[in-house]
Amino acid sequence: MSDILTNEQKLNFLHSALCNGGLSELQYSGIELDYLATEYDKAKKDLKSKDESPCYEDVLIQILNNGGELIFKDVECNDTYTNSITLQKVYDNVSKAPQNTLLDYLNENDDAESAYLLIQAILYDGEIIFG
Length: 131
Prior knowledge:
The chain is mainly α. The protein has seven helices and three strands, in the order ααβααββααα.
């Protein structure tokens, strides 16, 4: 499916996953999001020049667009294991998500479960570790 999805669609799928509770679902598995405060502040400032009040998920996507990364820590392993999502990782790994998950996004039928699976596919190079 990677041949038919544009990079813009892939990034939009991630945005939707962030909005649909994918981060909350990961927290149930002991995985928490982190980022550099300086990257967050810059991304928010960049968006504020275009929009009065960008939402949290918009800022996270802007971090990626600015060349930053979203860092995920496994808090059940005393933060010893971390992984991250970059813009290139989104482009490379969205299409590695389960086909039914991608169809949910294409059909605009995505929810917290599909968000959970999509973020895992991006984060773990196509592997679904939890659930």
